Amino acid sequence: MPMRDSWTHLVVGAGSAGATVAARLSQNPSNRVLLLEAGPDYRSAETPATVSNPNNWQLRGAGTHTWPGLTAHVTRDQGLTPYEQGRGVGGSSAVNNTFALRALPSDIERWARSGLNSLEWDELLNLYRSSECDIDFAGEDCHGSNGPLAVSRPTDGDWGPVDSAFREAAIDIGYPWCADLNAPGVSGVGPVPMTVRDAKRVSTNDAYLEPARERANLVVLGDACVTQVLFDGKRATGVAASRHGAELLERSEKIILCAGAIHTPVLLCRSGVGPASVLRNIGIDPLTDLPVGRNLTEHPLLAALLPFSDAGAFGPGYEGRQGCFLLRTGSSGAGTDLNLVAFNVTPLPGLGTMFVALMGPTSRGNVRLLDRDNFSVSFDSLSTQADLEALGSGVELLRTLLATSPVTGVSPAPFDVTGRPFDPPSDRDELASWMRERCVPYFHAAGTCRMGDDDDSVVDGQFRVRGIDNLYVVDASVFPDATSANTNLTVIALAERAAAML
Q1: What's the CA gap between 298 and 364, in Å, rounded?
Q2: Is-contact 381 273, C-beta < 8 A?
Q3: Minimal CA–CA distance to 196: which of 160, 155, 150?
Q4: What DSSP state is assigned to residue 108?
Q5: Is residue 122 part of a domain?
Q6: Could you tell me if residue 113 is inside a domain?
Q7: Residue 231: which residues within 8 A CB-CB, separation 6 or more?
Q8: Sequence-ordered list of residues with C-beta below 8 angstroms from that of 327, at least 6 positions apart, any chain
Q9: In a domain, 476, yes or no
């Protein structure tokens, strides 16, 4: 099939990064931008109610807006488990929870130590500010008021019984109240900033793509699954994709992969860009030898489920919001950052939850191509002693919160994900096994195409794939390390940076 007329920029994936990059690039009328998305495409006004609802439980496992059949090994003590990644315009910004948390300055210091010297905290802070319209702190120096992405925080009327108990318990045991969890370097308990406006989710499809849709120089194609990047020697020239049973061949001056930390490395490896020995073993001729798919990070979490002692106390009105408060314990810069969260609702009727997540893990996994059509995902979470000790301290903190009178008044008998009473063992080795058996992912995969200013990275500080011309990667796969926050805001900020460079 012959290629169509050439584009200046071809973006693969319309998620948090891809929607941002395509929208920003199309602001220049001399650019001709094609955005290909494997999942469904729709205008913002046509967003399904299950997507626009900030409570994403109804989407969990549905398959329409997540990748069907995607599984992962979370820890060495677990078998394969479903792993959810957004599929459709907005990507994971349309299916994950709506937490709009920033990385911390210590994250960028750690990224610098890992080889990325060309990104400084002040630049990242300015990118956060330019991307957001913070409804609550628009006049503050560290916040923006004119960006496309709405950020707001729940107010008193939004609180549920678990919210109130969690907030009171955290303050009772000594944590300060923090009205703005996105101020640099803060810690304490406070209302979660969320990408929510007027009780509706704001995905990057809403914030970035929708205002750009009428531009003649931007074309968005949904249901277009890119299968391979095409090359002339070591110069990327286009992509092959399948759409509605037909093959598409699209040529472009620049190819920008924004398919996420799982699917971007898979696409690169299928195209011959990756670890040479692995590619040769499965019959793919390598164009270059790069550590694609390694350095996979994820935030592991452990949850306590809370059956309500008085179901009537739950009351109506919480269907549109999972929870309102989060506790950030602070950062030592050594991977000990913890986030504790309370939810009023879960997919199981009559149950709330509180969980603790390790936000600075040192464990590393990989995405590995098994053959041209199949791949494996292994996070190997809690594989380091540092992570076991850090999350173990978080489990103890969670136990302390659960034992306070505000929480026992709501739910006196919490249990874990196996259905047993929440009772972490005190023996160190037994606790390690207990955590590895019960740990679940936060759906924040990152790191598989590490960005750096050193020769061991996959992409350089300008998002260019090393050793390849005209090929770029812009998504969570370029994170050198995990951030001490949910990934969405930082992905959007880096996409803003990449679009300006491109």
Answers
A1: 8
A2: no
A3: 150
A4: H
A5: no
A6: no
A7: 237, 271, 272, 287, 468
A8: 166, 170, 175, 188, 189, 338, 339, 340, 341
A9: yes
CA atoms within 13 A on the CB side of 320: 14
The amino acid sitting at 445 is A
AA letter at 102:
R
Q: pLDDT digits over 189-219, tens only?
A: 999 999 999 989 999 999 999 999 999 999 9
2-61 pLDDT, tens digit per residue, is 345 589 999 999 999 999 999 999 999 999 999 999 999 999 999 998 888 887 776 765
**Look-up of token digits 């496992």:** 61
Domain count, the chain: 1
Q: Determine the Cα–Cα distance for residues 188 and 364; give it in Å rounded to an integer.
A: 28
DSSP letters, 427-480, are SHHHHHHHHHHH-EE-S--B-TT-B-SSTTSSB-TTSBBTT-BSEEE-SGGG-S
DSSP string, 6-75: -EEEEEE--SHHHHHHHHHHTTSTT--EEEE-SS----GGG--HHHHSS-GGGGTT-SSSB-TT-EEE-S
Question: Which residues lie across from 82 on neighbouring strands?
Answer: 71
Name the packing angle between helices 161-172 and 385-402 (round to 10°). 110
**Rounded to a whole number, what is the distance in angstroms from the first to the last CA of the chain?**
29
List the domain range (segments joined by +) for residue 481.
Answer: 7-55+86-101+201-293+445-501
| CATH number of the structural domain spanning residue 240 | 3.50.50.60
Strands 200-201 and 218-221: unpaired
Q: pTM of this prediction? A: 0.95
The β-bridge relationship of strands 471-473 and 246-257 is parallel
In a domain, 254, yes or no: yes
- 432: its two tokens: 């390690």
